[in-house]
Write a structure and sequence with these properties.
Layout: E1 2-14, E2 20-27, E3 34-39, E4 48-53
């Protein structure tokens, strides 16, 4: 399991019905934005998230 702390830069897709979201986030140590997908209904641009996943 990987754990990252990131800042939401952009919301690519978000379904209010299912909560499924696709986000572009910035992660310390990475030059490019990282894509994160999952049930993240409360995510808004500028949010700081701690995410776990594969």
């Amino acid at each position: 399991m990987t754990r990252i702390r990131c800042v939401v830069e952009r919301i690519t897709f978000q379904s209010p019905e299912t909560g499924y979201s696709v986000l572009k986030v910035s992660v310390k140590g990475y030059q490019e934005l990282v894509t994160v997908a999952g049930n993240l209904t409360d995510a808004v641009a500028g949010s700081v998230l701690l995410i776990e996943g594969e």
